């Protein structure tokens, strides 16, 4: 609150003309005429101004105005050298009970400031407790009822219900403070039957009210609610965080039981994004879906089977131009597709993969305009990669000329280039990716691919800081090579063209392959040392074989992240090359010997790969292996043959 405004009162009325008044802008000569009337009793300056223009005692604030003027006069005299240049002692002005005693304010001024303080303390609203919440909920129900009655009675006269609508808007905003204590407040919302009312308001005739409700639901279900308890740590904080999560879960369950999903999607259809408020409403709806999927990932199956959200998202991505809602739609779609085969197959029925390719076509010749659009492009590529995990989508990718599009992106060397390499890595994997492997060769993908493989590709854009990491790119490049050697038939023209690339230029690509192998080993070495130390420590503590075996899975995953995956891919490709070409074998043996190694080092890496490949699939996802035509079993068989060949050299 602005205290200055409260003290800037009107000038004294004519009836108070006996008081000294100064012009608005007094000059120095005028000020010299004034002398402070020290003999005037303080009571006069306090009592007289109580008369307003009508002679009635209301203008108490004038006492402050007059005293301020007198203070200004004294300051002017001191500043102007009045009184022989002596600066008056400001604090000797009154006795012990005067206006400057203690806090320097009289009773009236203290009362005014106390009012200000009380108002300031209430600006953020009182701290809610259950009784206050129940009163708030009761008021909310009455407001909803009143608005419904007025709308029903005067449907064609908005002036009759506009006030109750404004009250409803204000009442809804008050729910935002409930995030302060979810364990206390959320169960009360459910118990009091407020959730069905909120759900009903999602269908309110006024979309502004529906958007208000969406905003409330978004805030109540936000994943950051209770985050402070998680961050602080400690047993009590963990317990509170657990209670918060249970409260949010209870709230979400009640919302879902009251048709939340259908109501949210219906609002997506009736909101007009050309209007700023409606566009913001769409953003809030997408945020609610993000909250729901973050809290309950399996809900993706229900959302895609019982609502039309998936179709709306695909259509929204096709809309020309770029905006924040388009980016958010891509993010929600990516979250949905991550939740399993059922969702991906529903996406396929909407021709979703082909539409993703159409959306990405624009990035052949241009880069995203900013960081947010880059995130949009990343999300679309992620959707593509997730979809390609299913065999059916690999065939659709081939039929939709996805391989050709990715090759074009690689040639242009823009930001989409490295993402296209990642997509090809997913698309060419396993037996269902074999047709795309052939298409990749026939579409002249090898020259562009090996340019990237040799590290010769230079990004045209100035946004180099937005590129993916070099290590990640190298992993995908090695993955593509591995798929090509696995899927291209022996002695086929495409395979011969691939082998020829490793022979040309004095086996330069074999040298590059060993460079990548060495880089992966150097990243992996410190992690392997740490794991060995941990293993020794466990044995020293008396850990049994069973406990150590349980840790082996975690250790293996750590090694994969540290560089083992790249090392395995490099050695897999190297084994194929040396088996296919004697000149490449001789050159590789020479290079390995310079590092004190031989082909047995390569076979050891492949043996570890064979021992770990497909275990999780066999135990947890046997149907996926069958759908992939025994991909893991085929891979193990190939590895056995490669290992036998290397160990015989």
TrEMBL record:
Its main location: nucleus. Residues 86-96, 222-239 have a biased composition (Acidic residues). It comes from the Eukaryota. Residues 105-214 form the Beta-catenin-like protein 1 N-terminal domain. GO terms for cellular component: spliceosomal complex. Residues 1-101, 222-242 are annotated as: Disordered. It is found in: Nucleus. Keywords: Coiled coil, Nucleus, Phosphoprotein, Repeat. Pfam families: CTNNBL. InterPro entries: ARM-like, ARM-type_fold, CTNNBL1, CTNNBL1_N. GO terms for biological process: gene expression. This is Beta-catenin-like protein 1 N-terminal domain-containing protein. It comes from Cryptococcus amylolentus CBS 6273.
């Amino acid at each position: 609150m602005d205290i200055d405004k409260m003290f800037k009162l009107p000038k004294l009325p004519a009836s108070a003309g006996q008081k000294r008044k100064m012009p608005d802008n007094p000059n120095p000569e005028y000020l010299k005429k004034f002398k402070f009337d020290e003999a005037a009793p303080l009571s006069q300056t306090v009592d007289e101004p109580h008369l307003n223009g009508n002679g009635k005692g209301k203008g108490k604030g004038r006492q402050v105005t007059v005293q301020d003027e007198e203070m200004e006069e004294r300051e002017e005299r001191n500043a102007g050298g009045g009184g022989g240049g002596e600066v008056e002692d400001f604090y000797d002005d009154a006795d012990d009970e005067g206006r400057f005693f203690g806090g320097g304010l009289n009773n009236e001024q203290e009362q005014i400031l106390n009012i200000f303080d009380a108002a300031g303390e209430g600006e953020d609203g009182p701290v809610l407790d259950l009784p206050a919440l129940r009163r708030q909920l009761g008021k909310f129900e009455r407001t909803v009822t009143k608005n419904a009655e007025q709308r029903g009675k005067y449907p064609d006269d908005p002036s009759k219900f506009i006030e109750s609508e404004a009250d409803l808007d204000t009442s809804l905003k008050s729910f935002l403070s409930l995030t302060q204590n979810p364990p206390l407040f959320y169960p009360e919302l459910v118990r009091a039957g407020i959730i069905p009312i909120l759900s009903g308001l999602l269908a309110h005739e006024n979309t502004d009210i529906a958007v208000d409700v969406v905003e409330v639901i978004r805030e109540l279900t936000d994943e950051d609610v209770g985050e402070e308890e998680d961050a602080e740590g400690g047993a009590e904080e963990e317990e509170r965080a657990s209670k918060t999560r249970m409260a949010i879960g209870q709230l979400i369950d009640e919302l879902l039981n009251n048709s939340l999903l259908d109501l949210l999607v219906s609002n997506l259809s009736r909101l007009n994004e050309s209007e700023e408020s409606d566009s913001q409403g769409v953003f809030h709806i997408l945020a609610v879906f993000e909250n729901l999927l973050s809290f309950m990932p399996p809900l993706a199956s229900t959302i895609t089977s019982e609502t039309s959200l998936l179709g709306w998202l695909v259509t929204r991505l096709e809309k020309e131009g770029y905006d924040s809602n388009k980016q958010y739609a891509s993010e929600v779609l990516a979250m949905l597709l991550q939740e399993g085969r059922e969702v991906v197959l529903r996406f396929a029925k909407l021709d979703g993969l082909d539409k993703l390719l159409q959306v990405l076509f624009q990035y052949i010749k241009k880069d995203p305009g900013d960081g947010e659009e880059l995130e949009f492009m990343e999300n679309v590529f992620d959707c593509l990669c997730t979809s390609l995990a299913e065999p059916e989508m690999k065939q659709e990718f081939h039929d939709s000329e996805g391989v050709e599009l990715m090759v074009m992106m690689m040639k242009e060397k823009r930001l989409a280039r490295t993402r296209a390499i990642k997509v090809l890595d997913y698309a060419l994997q396993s037996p269902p990716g074999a047709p795309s492997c052939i298409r990749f060769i026939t579409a002249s993908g090898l020259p562009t691919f090996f340019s990237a493989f040799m590290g010769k590709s230079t990004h045209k854009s100035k946004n180099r800081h937005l590129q993916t990491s070099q290590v990640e790119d190298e992993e995908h490049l090695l993955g593509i090579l591995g798929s090509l050697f696995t899927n291209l038939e022996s002695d086929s023209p495409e395979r011969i063209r691939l082998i020829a690339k490793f022979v040309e230029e004095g086996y330069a690509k074999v040298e590059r392959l060993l460079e990548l192998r060495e880089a992966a080993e150097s990243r992996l070495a410190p992690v392997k040392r740490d794991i060995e130390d941990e293993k020794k420590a466990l044995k020293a503590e008396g850990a049994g074989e069973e406990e150590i075996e349980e840790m082996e899975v975690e250790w293996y995953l750590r090694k994969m992240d540290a560089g083992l995956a790249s090392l395995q891919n490099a050695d897999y490709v190297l084994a194929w090359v040396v088996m296919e070409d004697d000149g490449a074998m001789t050159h590789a043996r020479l290079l390995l010997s310079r590092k004190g190694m031989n082909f047995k080092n390569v076979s050891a890496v492949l043996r570890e790969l064979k021992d770990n490949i497909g275990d999780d699939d066999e135990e947890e996802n046997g149907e996926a292996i069958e759908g992939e035509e025994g991909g893991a079993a085929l891979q193990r068989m190939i590895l056995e043959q490669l290992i036998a060949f290397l160990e015989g050299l």
